[in-house]
Amino acid sequence: AYWARDADIYAMAERARGMVINSPELDSYQFYVALTSSFRPLGGIGHFGFVDADQYDFIINNEHAWQRWLYSPSAIARLYEPQVVSFYNRYRDRFMPGAPPSGGIPTTNILTTSIEEGRISHLRVGSFWWMNVHGSEYDNEMLNFFNDIRGYEHLIIDLRNTGGGCASNFTISIMAPNIEQSVRVEGFVFLTQGGYAAGYYDRALAGGSVNAPQFQSRMYSTDTELRPIDEMFKEFDLTEFNMADAERLDYGFRMHMDVVARHLPRFDSQPAFDGKIWFLTGPNMGSAIQLSSWVAKESGFATLVGEITGGVYGGPRTFVALPNSGIVFNMDVFYVTDSHGRPLEAGTIPHYFNREGMDALETVLAMIEEGQY
After folding, report:
1. Where are the beta strands (DSSP E) in the chain?
2. Which residues, in sequence order, are CB contacts of 219 under 8 Å at separation 6+?
3. What separation, in Å, do the N-terminal and C-terminal C-alpha atoms of the chain show?
4. Model pTM score
5. Model pLDDT for residues 230-263, shown as the tens digit of each residue
6. Residue 255: beta bridge partners?
7. Which of 77, 146, 201, 220 has the fewest CB atoms within 10 Å, i.e. is most exposed?
8. Hey, is 202 helix, strand or coil?
9. Distances 141 to 108, 151, 155, 172, 321 between C-alpha atoms, Å
10. How many Cα neighbours within 13 Å face the side chain of 144?
């Protein structure tokens, strides 16, 4: 909040408090409006956001919705607390109607173009949300595409406007079929010790290996216990850590993400595509797409071209239920960094920035024609 938006959360709280003091007759829904307007600058940072009636109803009424995987059982249980149920039932009709979180079914989710036949191919994905729901269908469609472009020189992966979901859709369906050998990407997790994070780090540290439960999106802890943050700085080369944030963090642990190569018989048990892979980046790339950008760069899978990505990532998220009104908001519970200590919330820096007057795709095409790769 401080360095991403120059936002002062305490000033926001005072603004909301002033609205309440100056309007003592506010009901709970008007209090909700005061909170959402006061804390609007935090929107998207660490998945922060207030839960509206559509979101609440969708999660409550869809017990098998994949969105529930994002939260611990204790977080989901907060949605059933009496004051929460009362708030969303009582004021449901006063919320502005909106699209359900599931979104509409896209006519097509994987969009492919042959920019230059036999030489340059372009891959876009509409949403990782729908790859979660239709995983095998979209995975097969992706593999068919890789089969169609065998022999091409360049593959341009464009996720600049892809909706969120799960980063394993990228690592399994896009990255794994096209790498020579399995790779491991390493990073760090930091946290403030407290009740909301406790359930997540206990689970993350259970076993400390790939046999332990993943704490999100196929991420696993490398350590088996929390380490004081000062100890982390002494042992590891965290040269890109934002030291101002260290004052608000207590502990940390190492983590990793493994991408296992998928060498399928249909591709002669070799990488499906053996040409040059480009990965376009932009500020709208957050959450699962932020993770995809980070893994693509740290692993050397692709050359990143464009702008710094959008961040919006702090590990698993939780619900917080305000005790009196029953208003709910969600937020991430960890502070995740790359192997050098750069927080993923700050985004991933591409290898090459856009050229003046060009977007990322235009820049890549110019680089290809000039042989700069």
Report:
1. 49-50, 110-116, 120-125, 154-158, 183-191, 219-221, 227-228, 251-259, 276-281, 303-306, 317-321, 328-332, 335-337, 352-353
2. 255, 256, 257, 315
3. 37
4. 0.92
5. 999 999 999 999 999 999 999 999 999 999 999 9
6. 187, 221
7. 77
8. helix
9. 11, 18, 16, 13, 41
10. 9
